[in-house]
Amino acid sequence: MSVTYQIEPGGVLKGRIRVPGDKSLSHRAIMLGSIAQGVTRITGFLEGEDAIATLNAFRALGVSIEGPTRGNVTVHGVGLRGLKAPGRALDCGNAGTAMRLLAGLLAGQSFDCELTGDESLRQRPMERVAEPLNRMGARIETGKGGRPPLKIHGARKLAGIRYDMPVASAQVKSALLLAGLYAEGRTCVTEPAPTRDHTERMLQAFGCAVEKNGNTVCVRGGAKLTATAIEVPADISSAAFLMAGASIAPGSDITLEHVGINPTRTGAIEILRLMGADLQVLNERAAGGEPVADIRVRGSTLRGVEVPRELAALAIDEFPALFIVAANAKGTTVVTGAEELRVKESDRIQVMADGLQALGLQAAPTRDGMRITGGPYRGGVVDSHGDHRVAMAFAMAALRASAAVTVSDCANVATSFPGFVELARSAGLKISLV
Ligand code: S3P
């Protein structure tokens, strides 16, 4: 189904809004709840296609799961050894997190399994998980060029390894930690830069010991997971679009409620502040092992900055939104150290640069980032290449365009932000479907 957004120019964003649940946490809650003993109750679950793909995969693996109904999901855990052969390939849809984490978790099962996905996912690199998992004793075959589908052979004896990750990837780290639950001895992963630590936190919430030493994290095989309640906060990566929109549109004043502000996810807040955004983190509290807060953003005058490289991994999913902020800042913004953007749901460096240029902006893609000079821009047609975050970023760009912006190929917004159009419209964005 083809979905096109038409956004009239101008407007401001106002109000109090709760965006849908965190995608990373929703995937993990289903996975850990499934291999725990007992009944896990999840609230705030993301009812988006990505998290639903994980939910359906675990149903196919023999887990009884109720919901989702208004964000509530009940998972009847089967224990570490209780999953069953699915009898068909598991379809991860658009979700890289589902495929990579499942690869780790399924590497230690007694049965064979195949993982596949949509056209975008079938282009994404999987060798980064297959290679270290095979080093642990797994047998995972990738398709051509190290891409999906993944054929995972069961009944392998896994042994813990020490792995120095060549890329800063929470998905690779998580895949190895999940396989580590099924391995003999300790599995330790060292990361070159901090990445989101939701797997580590949630394993601990399920009663599994996780050792952390500097940039190395270890688990031991055979640990027992005990069911627990998981409260999923609103996704900061979805909130980022409204944060960006409010920042660029003078007169905006929006409060995003109950947003997860895990410090491994808040690079965008730091970058926005460096750019002069008027952003307040209010009412900080804890929810299920994760920090949350309300975030108030008002329109302000923005400046171009050199984004510190060390923030790249901490803001990796927010760059599409941040590029739009850069287009509305005075001066030039330079992003480096973000080469991972090239292997996301689309090549986000190229696709974002093409879109910015289509609106008449100066945007120069580089190997690992982009150089964007802010300035007035026109309306036009932008192809999101089926990338949910590109689509939502350009929808926000219309707030400051001189004419309407049309964004094509937007169906995948439903993977991470169901109800985006209605929510953004209620906040003041002049968006409609054509
Ligand atoms: C995710 C990790 C990140 C992120 C993705 C979700 C996760 O990917 O971009 O949207 O839930 O672990 P990488 O680990 O590949 O950087």
What are the SSEs and their pairings?
Elements: E1 5-7, E2 14-17, H1 23-35, E3 37-43, H2 49-60, E4 64-69, E5 72-78, E6 90-91, H3 96-107, E7 113-116, H4 127-135, E8 139-141, E9 150-153, E10 158-159, E11 162-164, H5 170-180, E12 183-184, E13 186-190, H6 198-205, E14 211-213, E15 216-220, E16 229-231, H7 236-248, E17 253-260, H8 267-274, E18 278-287, E19 290-298, H9 319-327, E20 332-335, H10 348-358, E21 362-366, E22 369-373, E23 380-383, H11 388-397, E24 405-408, H12 413-416, H13 420-427, E25 431-433
Parallel strand pairs: 2-17, 3-16, 6-7, 10-12, 11-13, 23-24
Antiparallel strand pairs: 1-24, 1-25, 3-5, 4-5, 7-9, 8-9, 13-15, 14-15, 17-19, 18-19, 20-22, 21-22
Helix pairs in contact: 1-2, 1-6, 3-5, 4-5, 7-9, 7-11, 9-11
Shikimate-3-phosphate is lined by residues 24, 97, 169-171, 174, 195-196, 316-317, 340.
Q: Work out the count of structural domains.
A: 2
Number of strands: 25
Give the averaged pLDDT, no decimals: 98
Q: Any ligands, ions or cofactors bound here, and which?
A: shikimate-3-phosphate
CATH superfamily of the largest domain: Enolpyruvate transferase domain
Radius of gyration using CA atoms only: 21 Å
CATH structural fold name of the largest domain: UDP-n-acetylglucosamine1-carboxyvinyl-transferase, Chain
Count of DSSP helices? 13
Low-confidence stretches: none
Task: Kindly provide the name of the CATH class of the largest domain.
Answer: Alpha Beta
Helicity, as a percent range: 25-40%
Shape: globular
Approximate strand percentage: 25-35%
Adjacency order of strands in the biggest sheet? 23-24-1-25
Secondary-structure arrangement, i.e. CATH architecture of the largest domain: Alpha-beta prism
Distance between the termini: 12 Å
Structural class: alpha/beta
The biggest beta sheet reads: 4 strands, mixed
